[in-house]
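User: Assemble these into one structure.

Assistant: Restating your components, then the assembled model:
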Amino acid sequence: MSTFRVPPASGTIPPSHDPFSPPATEKRRRVNESLSTWRWSDRIGYAVAWAIGLGLCAVAFAIVGFMLFKGLSVLSLDLIFSSPQASADQRNSGGFMDPILGTMILVVVGIVIATPIAVCAAVWVVEYGRPTWLARFVESGIEIIAGTPDVILAVFGLALFQQKLFAPLSFTAQGGAVFGRSFIAAGAMMSLIALPMVFSSTREGLQAIPRHVREASFGLGKTRIATIRRVLLPSVRTNIGTGAALGMGRIAGDTAIVLLLAGGTLLLEPQGNVPGVDVLTGTGSSLTTYVFNNSPAGEGNAHDKAYAAAFVLLLIVVLLNFGVDKIARGRKSAQWKT
Amino acid sequence: MGRRLSRFIEQARRPWSDQRAEIVLGALSGLVLLTIFAMVVFIFAKAWPSLSANGLGILGSGHDVDKQLGDIYNSPAGEKNFVYTLNAWPLIYATALTTVLSVGMGIFISLFAAVFIVEFAPESLRRTLNPVIRLLAAVPSVIYGLIGILVLVPFVGNHLISAQRKASVEYVLTGGLSGASLLVAVVILTLMIVPIMVALNVDALNSVPRAWKEGAVALGVNRWRAMWSVSVHAARPAIVAAAVLATCRALGESIMLLMVSGSVGFAPNPLDGITFWFEPLRTVASTIIEGADSLATPAYARTMYALAAMLLASCFILSFAGWLIKQPLKKYGRGV
């Protein structure tokens, strides 16, 4: 793509050339247009494009390098495996095991809610999609959700989960006021962040499967839903996995929803009596809010802790995002002939 | 009970009929639309007391926003005594300012970057740039905020703002110029939205048929011109779509802006010259986040819902406007 090649001119082929022998490996002449023939404005644009390309690389390497340097210099196993303590002194304020657990709970809750709905919606839109206007609406609705800022989702979650109906999902105060903040509430809103990513990657996978595959299955007497379950879903497994991993990365990196909906306690504080479930209906924090609270903008103002937690967070997000390549490459799904 | 449950499970395990599957899947998809509907209803219902009390005055200016928010927070008990008066112009202006500046810069940078990646980058550099763009898009905003507040803000505060400049605003801004400023906010916000736009623009430019470009080159145009006059023109709908998506992102960015922009309800004044860039501000979204702990106060919570409603409305309007802009442009491109 980077250079346009021209085929060798017909005059370069010797007239005695035998058409049945392979063509002589003649070096193709490359047209390297020289920059000196370009107008000045084009040359300036070209230089700007190079500068921006290199600049983006430099910025990315600077960010990663800086976080790596700062993170590795302050991180220790002790920090990861001890709970945070409220303390004005950075040395006594403990580690961030609870926020790590919080992030994991949120990621799991979010993706467990998002994946089935997103996959079902994608299957319905691609395979059934009747009435057409409703399918278009669903598609643009998911686009709208993808474009909705996380603050809005957080505020919506607060309004929703403070309804009496959802009282069992969070803490209820003495007067009957529902607190509306818990891991379930935050995770449910997180699922809206992950949903568009799972949806679009599943939809793309389904659309890439050629018609004749479905027709072969129908020809064997399978119903539409049996085809979906036995043929289509297994072959878009990698797409679902990719979308889910990307969605998990987004969930792990979100701050606004956790700040508003997870209750703002530093430790995991279970609510209720059922063991296991009480953590979900309880409050806590995540790595993102931990970083925020320990930055000068929050109350903690413990730079080292913030850097260490940010490093762990970056590690999780990068692993989730680039683990995607591994999924996609390791299990190459069936190559359909079109 | 157990019998009935086991029968239910048995029934659910049996192969579904097509009709039933269609209805169930369709209903689940309809859940998405229901969620959006509920979102609009809940937010506007909660925001209504504040919106109706303020009317269009909520868009106005003239008062100290932070003081008004304080009054709302401290409003006396009893539904009738709640204070709602808010002139949120400084917040709205700050949001518009950061968004317009960073999206404007972002369109320029992302277009050049996409053209570079698609057409001019050597193979090795292209292979580095793809993960770089994905990495930059994946970094959580709180990490951008952390780098901003711990690296860029002190740098700007200590090296770029002279003592004389700091003294010049002493009587206007109580916090002074600390370095947490419009400049840092716009720089980091641009960095955050550029990767999203680059990824979309690269996809769009790649899907322009190769033959179109080759046709232009065959007519004697150089590669740069061919790229701009053919590919970029054909990809305009996608470029608009990318810009709209980035604008929504920038409008809703809360945590990073809260960290680096000084969190003062102040409207930076372009007439201040260079000082304009060093003035602190606070956007609508970061105002909502900053009051996270105060949401138990009904009057304050309703005010925050009113701000959220404005944000939601502007995002919807933007999406619609982007769709409208795309329609006539599609004629020229292939609807990429």
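Chain B touches chain A through 93 residues (CB under 8 Å).
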